[in-house]
């Protein structure tokens, strides 16, 4: 009986750890080429002083993603 309780306790602890990892994982680490619309939206919605820089970043990111897509073997 105590082995079963230890096993269940271990599963609960590991499960809590997995949930904490998923909740606190940083979404900025995701591939920016998966959501290019986010950069464009940020440029449109940004402050007047930031719009130029955000638009430049969106265009640069788009070019980098297109280049990466061309380099990938199909």
Question: Any overview of this molecule?
Answer:
- This protein is an all-alpha fold.
- The protein has a domain at 34-74.
- It has 3 helices and no strands.
- The chain has helices spanning 2-24, 37-45, 48-71.
- It is elongated.
- The model has no long low-confidence stretch (mean pLDDT 84).
- Keywords: Membrane, Transmembrane, Transmembrane helix.
- The chain crosses the membrane at residues 7-24.
- This is Entry exclusion lipoprotein TrbK.
From the structure above, extract its key features.
mainly alpha, elongated, 3 helices, 74 residues, 76% helix
Q: How many strand elements?
A: 0
- The CA-CA distance between the termini, in Å, is 55 Å
Class by SSE composition:
mainly alpha
- Given the structure, what is the number of helices? 3
Q: Mean pLDDT, nearest integer?
A: 84
Looking at the structure, what is the overall shape? elongated
Order of helices and strands: HHH
Strand content: under 5%
Describe the main β-sheet briefly: none
Low-pLDDT runs: none
């Amino acid at each position: 009986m105590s082995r079963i309780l230890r096993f269940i306790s271990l599963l609960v602890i590991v499960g809590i750890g997995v949930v904490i990892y998923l909740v606190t994982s940083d979404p900025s680490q995701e591939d920016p080429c998966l959501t290019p619309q986010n950069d464009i939206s940020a440029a449109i919605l940004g402050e007047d002083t930031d719009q130029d820089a955000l638009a430049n970043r969106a265009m640069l990111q788009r070019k980098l993603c297109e280049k990466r897509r061309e380099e990938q073997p199909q």
